[in-house]
Design a protein that fits this description.
This protein is an alpha/beta fold. It has 17 helices and 15 strands. The chain starts with 6 loop residues before the first helix and ends in a 15-residue tail after the last helix.
Length: 487
């Protein structure tokens, strides 16, 4: 059975759709049905409306939006003509994928032929030069493991020892039995939610936050509550009072160069969080994916887990950001009894992580100092290049320069993030609009801008974004002819 979105739900997702997609004045006004169809496409591009979802009946959506059924009928016809919905008489309409399109690495629907696209939708670096040597050594290390079945749900001891050593060197004493290796940070979060959160239980997240984390909470059928991060980061008293009042089963936070805002949580809040969570009966899932990527000689605060006295903190991390996303190695650090339970639950999902990948990760961690140092130097130059280009080309946009991480969180000059993402795609730039990072589909004034690409590519991307932004202010009817990216 396919998922169904009700009229009221779709109306909430569309939010102020007439404004968000840029309805013009009388000289350039587009028909309302075109605006509605464009807004639904925007939800699909953002990844907020999945493929194969059954849309509400025309009459139901018209009532929810307070518009005529004729407008909805025309919008659905427009979407059918462009291949974004398929309909069966008497059965309904479902979101679909136009011919020649696929799911991109960012989770958005994109054209199949996108070799020249500048992809700012993904905050990840290419592999370090040390990868080839590490992989060669890992193959030589493989023989003793090849004699066994290869299923180790906790992960290889040699890798767990290396990860535990990294935590211990940071001032957080850790034993290998406190670590479980996973298939990336995303799987670490997914497994924790499977173990800890029953359908209908409350989960607390920051907003904005990492989109794939929101997807994981949706898949777990948790009731999501959100704490809004302000322009200066976390309000300490408000965060703690929210944790106590929400009494959520879990709370998911990104204290180290927060994705997407770039904020670094103060030590005083880290110190108080575990006791507040314990009082509320809440387990803290702390995502440290960006921990290694301090760029401005920042003295990193202690891990939240360093202040945990009640086994309430579960720390997740991985190789994706500082090393390489193609190496699907992540981990969970927590109390040993819980890690053992997590490993038992993991057996029903994928048994274990690939042995060879774990050996490669072990060899890369042995080169940690050299790799991380080079990454920081590279990202510092790219961050400053992107910031300078944006100040020159788009001076009306505002952002706080992050002290680490991989992204700028940019406030636009108008609530046009989704419309800008569509216009930029036509000019060969993919960006992730603000609504993808919110639990409620808001944040149309924001855009996430990674600086993981080479400097000249970043400068060119900003130039095209400036052109796309200018195009939004020119009255014109949008053309959806191929190869426009929608879905």
């Amino acid at each position: 059975m396919s998922a169904i979105v009700r009229g009221a739900q779709l109306a909430r997702m569309l939010n102020a759709w007439q404004v968000a997609v840029g309805v013009r004045g009388p000289a350039g006004r587009r028909p309302e049905y075109v605006v509605l169809a464009t807004a639904v496409r925007g939800l699909l591009i953002d990844g907020r409306l999945a493929l194969g979802v059954r849309l509400p009946a025309e009459r139901e959506l018209a009532a929810a939006l307070g518009i005529s059924r004729t407008t909805v009928t025309a919008a659905y016809r427009e979407l059918r003509d462009s291949g974004h919905i398929s309909s069966r008489r008497g059965a309904g309409s479902w979101t679909s994928l136009p011919a020649g399109h696929r799911v991109g690495t960012s989770g958005l629907w994109t054209p199949s032929d996108d070799a020249d696209l500048i992809d700012l939708g993904c905050a990840a670096l290419p592999a370090p030069v040390e990868l080839t040597e590490a992989a060669t050594e890992a193959v030589a290390d493989l023989a003793p493991y090849a004699c066994g079945a290869g299923y180790q749900p906790m992960g290889l001891l040699v890798l767990r020892e290396a990860i535990a050593r990294c935590y211990t060197e940071r001032g957080l004493p850790t034993e290998p039995d406190q670590v479980m290796v996973t298939g990336g940070v995303q799987q670490a979060l997914d497994l924790l939610l499977r173990l800890l959160v029953a359908p209908g239980q409350r989960a607390l997240v920051e907003t904005p936050t990492y989109p794939n984390a929101l997807s994981a909470f949706t898949a777990s059928r948790a009731r999501v509550s959100a704490y809004a991060i302000g322009p200066d980061g976390w309000d300490e008293d408000l965060v703690l009072s929210t944790v106590r009042a929400a009494q959520a089963r879990v709370a998911y936070l990104i204290p180290d160069f927060h994705n997407p805002t770039g904020h670094l949580m103060e030590t005083s809040l880290r110190e108080r969080l575990p006791s507040a969570a314990h009082a509320a009966g809440t387990d803290l899932i702390i995502d440290e994916s960006f921990h290694d990527l301090a760029l401005d000689d920042v003295e990193m605060p202690p891990s939240v887990a360093a202040f945990d006295r009640s086994a309430r903190v579960l720390t997740i991390g991985g190789m994706s950001k500082a090393y390489w996303g193609g190496l699907r190695i992540g981990w969970v650090r927590g109390a040993a009894p819980l890690i053992a339970r997590l490993a038992a639950a993991r057996v029903g999902v994928d048994m274990a992580s690939p042995v060879l990948d774990q050996l490669v990760a072990t060899r890369l961690l042995q080169r940690r100092d050299a790799i991380v140092s080079a990454r920081r130097k590279q990202l510092l130059v790219q961050r400053d290049t992107l910031a300078a280009a944006m100040r020159a080309e788009l001076p009306e946009w505002r952002f706080v320069l992050p002290r680490g991480g991989l992204v700028l969180w940019v406030e636009l000059d108008a609530p046009v993030s989704s419309a800008l993402a569509r216009a930029a795609e036509e000019l060969g730039v993919r960006v992730a609009p603000g609504p993808r990072f919110g639990a409620d589909g808001t944040m149309e004034r924001f855009l996430r801008m990674p600086y993981a690409l080479p400097e000249d590519t970043l400068v060119e991307a900003v130039r095209r974004l400036a052109s796309a932004r200018a195009d939004l202010d020119r009255p014109r009817r949008h053309s959806w002819s191929a190869p426009a990216v929608v879905a």
